[in-house]
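User: what does the whole thing look like in 3D?
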Amino acid sequence: MHVGLEHYLVVSMLLFALGLLGVIMRRNLLVIYMSLELMLNAANLALVSFSRFNNNLNGQILVFFIITVAAAEVAVGLALIVALYRKRQSAHVEDLTLMKL
Amino acid sequence: MELPDILFYVFAALTLLCGMLVIANPFSRNPVTSAMFLVLTIISMAGLFVLLHAFFLAAVQIIVYAGAVIVLFLFVIMLLNLKEEQQRKIKKFSLIGGLVSVGAIVTILVISLNETRPGADLSAPILEGETAALGKLLFTQYVLPFEVVSVLLLVAMVGVILLSKKDLK
Amino acid sequence: MKLELLPWLILFLPLLATGCIALFTLQNRTLSAGLSISAIVIGFVLTIVFIVNNGWTPTPSELTTNWVTVGGLQVDFGLKLDALSLMMMLIVTGVGGAIYIYSFGYMHEDRGFSRYFACLSLFTFSMLGVVLANNFIELFIFWELVGVSSYLLIGFWFERPSAADAAKKAFITNRLGDFGFLLGILMIWGWFTSLNVSDPLNFNVLYASTHQHDLIFVLPTVAGLLIFCGAIGKSAQFPLHVWLPDAMEGPTPVSALIHAATMVAAGVYMLCRVFFLFDASALDVIAWIGGITALIAALIAVQQNDIKRILAYSTISQLGYMIMAVGLAGPAPAMFHLTTHAFFKALLFLGAGSVIIALHHEQDIWKMGGLRKKMPVTFWMFLFGALALCGVPPFSGFYSKDSILALALEQENYPLFVLGVAVAGLTTFYMSRLFYVAFLGKAKTEVAGHAHESPPVMAWPLRVLGVFALVGGVIGVSQTYASQFGSAAEHLSFAQTLIEPFKQSPGAATIGIAAVAIGFFAARALYRDAVDDPLPAKLGGFATAMKNRFYFDEIYEATVIHAHDFIAAVMDWIDRWLVDWACIGFVRGGTDFSGRALRLVQTGNLQTYAFLFVLGVAVLLYFVLGR
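Assistant: Here's the predicted 3D structure for the full assembly of 897 residues, as structure tokens:
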């Protein structure tokens, strides 16, 4: 079967779902963060495939920016996790319930 | 079946498998293992990009993501000296909650994909993802976001340095 | 100087005075009084200037500006200038001016001196508005304003619960009458609008509409009677007369101005203004109500012991006379009596005020006496006023009362004529009683023995009003009114005017004088040198009933007030239980409950939040992707 746009989109969607599952199910902060990166990648894949099949380069430009921003975000997020670990000596999400009402 | 199609299925399967192993490795709960499998996922995705004729982006993906972001992750894991996650009981709530929410999203997306069939009447793509063309577009039409993103990186750098100081006086 | 500007100036000067006093000069007593008194005196002078320059029927006879036009209702703000309104303006500013000057002395030691003058000026503004109004809506607005000023002034000493209650009673009773009045206005509006008359509430337009093609068309009786309701309330006719005696809780100059000379006369004025709207049956009812009021009030006055209350009931009785005159299709005699009544009743009240102050706020006539030598000016002026009220020639009261009695005789309405004569006799009886007990004889208490005359600022207004009480009948007042209401005005010389009544209607004049004589001699026989009231012994139960004002207040209390209290209690129950407890309670409880429920969502757990995020995104996607 000839591979078309829908195939790529299905792959992207499944990857996104996997990342989402990781965010909700895993309890280690770092693994949650990694799953978040998975979701971003899924979005990138969808954008590139749209860009390809619409004969437009705009999607690829957007992916370029997304990768950049994701990198910056990872840096800052990890710095936060480090600071948090220093304070609480735990990277387990269930120990971080200070915002409970 | 032509080669590109076969390659697509290979890379797609690889991506999904590694993605699954990132989040739910039955053999080890070590975060380092998750990071490794994330690297593999990204490399597979780079393959998919190449199949989509986005050569520049494939390269960038490997260099930036696999080369910098994952390395950063590994540095932090080492820094925090995380041991294997204690075997806490898997909460039923989170499992069910996760499956429910993910199922909802997937269902909606699948159904919408089915209904609209976006690729139905698209002509065969003729675009060659030349780097030159990408660069031209970037520096003419999208030059403002480009500059802003550089400022963003600066800000992120400053923030990270500030946040990771030992004691903030 | 543009003479068209004058009426506006006269109308708004008192309002200006009120505003200035209320906002700026409450602390400065003399300045407040000065502002107020000058406003009204200037008003009086300007009125005279206007009349001298324009005569009694000026042209244009109306100055209006359009104020509001809503749908089919057009409301103008305008001034109607004819003999009727100009004479009333003279009375209001003239008698009012005398009373203002008197108050300067009377209220001298009172704490609320400035407030008093502010309220007085407000009243003058409202009364001038009533007199000058050229359409029903404007009249009604000023009518209500007059009621408000009356409320403020009756309850002037509001720390006294009786005064506060009296003010409330006056206002509410007035409102009852005004309710009927408003219904009447609405009826007129509806009636004339259905006849395609534009701006049907303007008096000129109404007059023209009802006098088309030599055909005089009148309203249905009901509308006329509803309009009369307003006069019943404002002029204290039976059955809404109960507020006027209680209104004596206010300061005496207030009683003189509002409840003798001007405000209560507003009802009579209004009836004369729209006199052409009433048909024969309405006029009949009006005449009988006036007559009955006159009789009842005179009977009650015979047994009252408070000097102000005697005068209050006398006012009600005389108002009954005026209303009776209107009902007998004689607006000119009614207005004539109104004018002379303003003079002598104000004089009587001011005189009573002098006595009250001299005896240190004593109002019971059985504690006075022997004031002839001690307070000569008050004595003689009070005598003038009393003689005018009784209708002794050549005092003004004789001419005005006689015109009313002559009118009754002319219309061959014998029951009302007999009633009028009987009331004249009773009037003389109770006024002589008052005079004998309060002024003549020996001083009955020590305080009365030490009385002394009032200061000049209070004595001079008495003198001026006394002069008018004497000559008011012969200075051409009745001719002015007669010309307004259509009958030809013959120009008579002074001497002719003096004996005019005897020529025109000798029967009425002689019978009237006979009634006066009978009343006087009866009172003299009973009350000369009396130390105690001999009448209860003679008349027994009837006298007690008279003293207790025929139990009107008690009847009203038992029926109307109780019904009202019951309805108020039911409403209170509904409000407290149904609205407060049920409705508001449910809302409050519901909010409380949902707040507590939603609080459980905030667990602090990151993954819970992520889960909820995703659910939200799913819902959003569902809607965005168009299903």
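In plain terms: Chain A touches chain B through 72 residues (CB under 8 Å). Residues 84 and 90 of chain A are 8 Å apart (CA to CA).
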